[in-house]
Structures are given as C-alpha cells and as structure tokens.
Design goal:
Blueprint lengths: L4 E10 L3 E4 H4 L7 H8 L3 E4 L6 H16 L8 E5 L10 H9 L6 E5 L5 H14 L6 E8 L9 H4 L4 E11 L5 E9 L7 E2 L11 H5 L6 E2 L1 H22 L9 E4 L4 H11 L10 H4 L6 H11 L8 E8 L3 E8 L1
Parallel strand pairs: 4-5, 4-6, 11-12
Antiparallel strand pairs: 1-7, 2-3, 6-7, 8-13, 9-10, 12-13
The structure holds acetyl coenzyme *A.
Length: about 325
C-alpha cells in the first residue's frame, strides 16, 4: 500500500476589526504615509481590541478552518499554535485555545516559537506527527497580537507590525502526490541580536528598571534583517525546488512571509518569477509574524488564487534568525 499523503483539509483566518492607517499612525509618531508605503508597501494594519487575546483570534481562525474542512473540534487530536505573543508565558496558548474551542482532552496541545517562520515549523511538525500514524487530524494555528510587544514610540519598528490569525486543518489522503510534498527548515543562531525582545525572559527577568528602559519591546536592526531575509528566503526557495527537481516557473503561486513588499520584490527578481505569481497582502495587514503565511494562504484560497492541481511555494524568515519553505500540491 502506498503511503498516505498529508493534505490541508481546510483553511481559515481572522483579522481584528480595528484598522490603523499610516495617516493615523503619523499623528502619534514622527513618520508619514509616504515613508511607510515606499519603504515597506504597508498602507494599514489591524489592531486587536484591548480585551481580545491571542487565543481569541486563534479561535476565530480555527473555527473557520474547521468549517472549511467539514470537521468538528472533537475530530482534532493535535493542536499546535505558532506564536511569539502567547496569552501568557505559561501555560501554552494551545491549551487555552483547546479549552475555548472544545478540542478533546486526549489531544496533544503545545506552542511553538520560530517567530515569523513559526507557521512553517508548526506545519512540518504536524506533518511529521501525522506521519507517525498516531494522530488523525491536526489543527495548526499561526496567531499574533504584536501590538502588545511593539514600542509605539519607536518609529523604526511600530509602523511595520499588526495583529491577526490564520489556521489550517491537516489530515491524510490516499491520493498520492498531493498535499505537503516537501519542507526545508533552518536557523542562523548567530543572528539572535538582529531581532529580539531582550527583557522578560530568564536571562533578564522583568524589573521596574527593565520596564522603564523598554526592554520588553521588540528590537530590530532593520537593514541587517532586510539583507539576511532576502538571502535566506531566496536560498530556502531554491533549495526546496532543487530537492524536488522543479523549476521556479512550475510554481503557480508563491506565498511569502509578508514583512516588506521590497523583500518580496527582491525574491521575485532573484527567482526570475513575476510579482503576479506572489500573493501580497502586506499592504492591508503589515507584518503579522506567525499569522502572516496562514492568513495569506486562506485569502489566496478564498479569492480563487489556488486551484486544484496547483503547486504553491510557502517561504518565510523570522527572528532567530529562522527560515523555511514548503511545497504544497492542491
Ligand atoms: N518614518 C520616517 N522615517 C523613518 C522611519 C519612519 N517610520 N523609520 C526610520 N526612519 C528614518 C531613519 O531614522 C533614517 O533616517 P536617517 O537617514 O536620518 O538616519 C531613514 O529613515 C532611513 O532609515 P533606514 O533604516 O535606512 O530605512 P530602510 O530603507 O532600511 O527601511 C525598514 C527600514 C523598512 C525597517 C527596512 O530596513 C526593513 O524592512 N527591514 C526588514 C524588517 C523586517 O522584515 N523585519 C522582520 C521582522 S520578522 C519577525 O520575526 C518579527
């Protein structure tokens, strides 16, 4: 008997209702719509309501993915949440979502932190666990409330990020050659300081002084991150194509991590694949880290950009510096 394929059975996403435009942002920080648009391609981002936790956004996206898959929470036996903005440091947001959604108590539930590459790491983990034969249906959620870790006085970072959620339900299919046909993950641990939140962990626990110094906010060396992001995303895309004996022009749609339109344009040029083959929604959401790819994937499916038989390439980079790519046949 041929091995079962690991397939995406349903997708869902959620974005909070509050839209924060560049024009509005430029009233509170020294920036402009023109600067933000030309440097990043971002026009607006979504901001979660004060009482709306990461888990709440994750639940909305998960319900939509389950409905799309025609499954119930009771069918899920593996729940992975990719996030850098959990509801609290412990327990895992996956356990909070399990309870809110009504996923059975015999399901394995855990969080995974690979920053903006988190969804690809979680998808690969889910596929490997499903491949063990011990799980039937996985719910993989990428969700972030980055508005809580951004320093709204720091114009070099606050203009780039937003809140949102995306989810997929993963299961098995007897049809060979469908679904997740390959992944490539990696990390450059020598680049930790390019993108980090220095305060609040075991290395520098929270104190009144650390809070006053803003050590609990995201810090980024933007220029260095930009250069490395282009390099590792290009490599991650090329490696996986080579591994599967594919050419770039055989990809119907690339869904890149939505950090900056200029990074996406650079990857498009390096792969010699027109920008029209790239899904872009960074203009409407900004960078939503682990939520970015599943949110884009859901929008791409719902707007008819992915059809049966298509080959989709997902590619991302994030703090760590982590990177990854995945190929999906629909
Ligand atoms: N508004 C106006 N001016 C600004 C702003 C702003 N929001 N931010 C910076 N500037 C100024 C700078 O102070 C600088 O002024 P100076 O020349 O007088 O010193 C000038 O604009 C140019 O700044 P640069 O940093 O050179 O601008 P650059 O073209 O590199 O663009 C950006 C900055 C958009 C941050 C870019 O470097 C970038 O996108 N980097 C990658 C960021 C990224 O993708 N992060 C991913 C995070 S992933 C994760 O895991 C969370």
């Amino acid at each position: 008997m041929s091995p079962l394929s690991t397939v995406i059975l349903g997708t869902g996403s959620y974005a909070p209702g509050r839209i924060l435009s560049n024009a509005e942002l430029s009233q509170t920080v020294d920036t402009s719509d023109e600067w933000i648009r030309t440097r990043s391609g971002i026009r607006e981002r979504r901001i979660a309501a004060p009482g709306e936790a990461t888990s709440d956004m994750g639940v909305h996206a998960a319900r939509r993915a389950l409905a799309d898959a025609g499954l119930q929470p009771a069918d899920i036996d593996l729940l992975i949440v990719a996030t850098i903005t959990p509801d609290m440091p412990m327990p895992a947001t996956a356990c909070i979502i399990q309870q809110k959604l009504g996923v059975p108590t015999n399901a394995a539930c855990f969080d995974l932190n690979a920053a903006c590459t988190g969804f690809l790491y979680a998808l690969d983990t889910a596929c490997a666990m499903l491949g063990s034969g011990r799980y039937r249906h996985a719910l993989v959620i990428g969700v972030e409330k980055l508005s809580t870790i951004v320093d709204w006085k720091d114009r070099t970072t606050c203009v780039l990020f937003g809140d949102g959620a995306g989810a997929v339900v993963v299961g098995k299919s007897p049809v060979p050659g469908l679904g997740l046909i390959g992944t490539k993950l990696g990390a450059l641990g020598d680049s930790v300081d390019l993108l980090c939140i220095p305060g609040g962990g075991s290395n520098a626990p929270a104190t009144a002084a650390s809070i006053a110094a803003g050590s609990h906010f995201l810090k980024m060396k933007g220029k260095e991150v930009f250069k490395l992001a282009v390099r590792v995303m290009d490599e991650a895309a090329r490696d996986i194509l080579e591994q599967h004996h594919l050419r770039a022009d055989q990809i119907s749609l690339v869904i890149p991590h939505q950090a900056n339109l200029r990074i996406i344009e650079a990857i498009s040029a390096y792969l010699e694949l027109p920008l029209e083959r790239f899904f872009v929604n960074v203009d409407r959401y900004g960078n939503t880290s682990a939520a970015s790819i599943p949110l884009a994937l859901d929008e791409a499916r719902r707007t008819g950009r992915i059809k049966s038989g298509d080959l989709t390439l997902l590619v991302a980079f994030g703090a760590g510096l982590t990177y990854g790519s995945a190929l999906i046949r629909w």
